[in-house]
Specification:
Layout (H helix, E strand, L loop, with lengths): L13 H27 L7 E5 L15 E4 H22 L5 H20 L10 E3 H27 L7 H19 L2 H25 L4 H24 L13 E3 L9 H5 L1 E3 H19 L1 H11 L1 H6 L4 H27 L10 H11 L4 H23 L6 H16 L20
Parallel strand pairs: 1-3
Antiparallel strand pairs: 1-2, 4-5
Helix pairs in contact: 1-2, 1-3, 2-3, 3-14, 4-9, 4-12, 4-13, 4-14, 5-6, 5-7, 5-12, 5-13, 6-7, 6-12, 9-10, 13-14, 13-15, 14-15
């Protein structure tokens, strides 16, 4: 997927780039205008929305904050005007960077405006309040899984191997992790098992791509299809007749004293499972390893110009093997983290998250920090699209759940700007 989105950057003229930036700005403005007139002026003048800040899990709950009531009409009008202002800034300044982040921010503001409009009182929804803390906590769980997946993609693609198999590694990690934690009741062993499962899948991808120089995208798709079918078969043959292997355990939260009591941000950053803290450590470790160490220099050299790297003594094949296996292990951990937030393993419940993680990787320009920002945007959109179902928005549930995937298509297709992947990404290396 990354290959399809990145090969024309150097050939684009400034006129083409400016035209694309202005198209993005126009789209942002249209979304803002729609928000102002449909969600803003379309609400009754006396309608209001209540914002609450109490998490559903009251264990180690933060210090209490009272609810906040806002006028729905003017809140959505302000949000729409912010979108229009962002669009005007993009249209006039035509910034070279962070255009995608602005577009993602407008998408999140649109979903929030829709949420306020849906939760208005009087209104058709039985739920007349928006729990901000719950939304942030739920979105952080979704973003955490996507960050694991996008970090896996960064590790692989920086070395020149396209990892389309992230979805399959999620599935393998979630399936094996569920079985291990159900029998041992210890997420530490489940994390190890998930990492091993992801690493083995990565090893298969590396072997076929590097040893036999198979098309990396096709191999990745085949691995995802195989893991999806295999998990369905094992679910019927193992988990269904033996439910003790799939008890649906949830990872406990590890609250940091005092910090977890801070309203709003406490439950989001300081009262999370061990997987959340591990994700933060991995982001820092991958960033440092890729950009501050000799190893990272070798990886980036292999991803940009493998022949030049080989001439100075770098073993291109070995570097790629190591990175693809390590990337697979990280994605396998992401599968266990997903299972730890969802509970019981179910066939198909990763629901294309591996492909969203790939889009986050492209969105973030193949950098860990950018992938984190993109994953947060996608995580918010994923969670809000499901949350809107609760408010009985007069739009089909299937349309709402399409929103994050539509954003994914927009990113991969280059609608919101083209970025350059590592030059040798996806290209087989032939030894002289």
């Amino acid at each position: 997927m990354s290959l399809l989105s990145t090969r024309t950057t150097s050939k684009e003229t400034p006129l083409v780039k400016n035209r694309r930036t202005r198209v993005i700005a126009v789209l942002m403005a249209l979304i803002g205008i729609f928000t102002v007139f449909v969600f803003g002026w379309g609400s009754e003048s006396r309608a209001h929305s209540s914002l609450t800040f109490t998490p559903l899990n009251l264990t180690n709950a933060p210090w209490h904050l009272g609810s906040l009531t806002v006028v729905t009409r003017w809140t959505d009008v302000v949000l729409g005007l912010v979108m229009i202002a962002a669009a005007a800034e993009v249209f006039v300044r035509q910034p070279r960077r962070a255009v995608m982040a602005r577009f993602g921010g407008v998408a999140i503001l649109f979903l929030l405006a829709l949420l306020f409009w849906a939760a208005r009182s009087p209104g058709p929804s039985p739920v007349s309040s928006v729990n901000i803390t719950t939304i942030l906590v739920g979105s952080s769980a979704a973003a955490m899984v996507l960050i694991f997946g996008s970090l896996s993609g960064v590790m692989c693609e920086r070395a020149g191997v396209v990892n389309i198999a992230i979805e399959g590694q999620f599935i393998g990690g979630a399936f094996l992790g569920s079985m291990i934690v159900s029998t041992t009741h210890d997420f530490f062993f489940a994390a190890i098992a998930g990492a091993v499962a992801g690493a083995l899948i990565g090893l298969v991808l590396a072997f076929l791509s590097l040893r036999y120089r198979s098309d990396q995208i096709i191999v990745g798709v085949v691995l995802v299809t195989m893991l999806s079918s295999l998990s369905s078969y094992l679910n019927l043959q193992v988990l269904t007749p033996f439910p003790n292997f799939n008890t649906g355990n949830l990872a406990p939260n590890l609250a940091i004293p005092l910090l977890s009591k801070i309203p709003i941000i406490g439950p989001v950053f300081f009262n999370q499972s061990g997987f959340f803290y591990l994700m933060i450590v991995l982001v820092a470790a991958v960033s440092f390893a890729l950009f501050k160490t000799r190893y990272g220099l070798h990886v980036r050299a292999v991803g940009e110009h493998p022949r030049a790297a080989a001439t100075v003594g770098i073993n291109v094949i070995r570097v790629r093997y190591i990175n693809v296996v390590l990337g697979g292990a990280i994605a396998g951990l992401g599968g266990v983290a997903f299972m730890a937030t969802q509970g019981q393993f179910q066939v198909g419940y990763t629901s294309g998250w591996g492909y969203i993680a790939l889009a986050a990787l492209i969105f973030g320009r193949w950098r860990p920090s950018g992938a984190v920002v993109a994953s947060i945007i996608f995580g918010l959109s994923v969670y809000l699209s499901y949350e809107l179902v609760t408010y009985q928005v007069p739009v089909s549930i299937y349309i709402l759940q399409m929103i994050p995937y539509l954003i994914t298509i927009a990113v991969v297709a280059g609608l919101i700007g083209r970025v350059r992947a590592p030059a040798a990404d996806g290209q087989p290396y032939l030894r002289d």
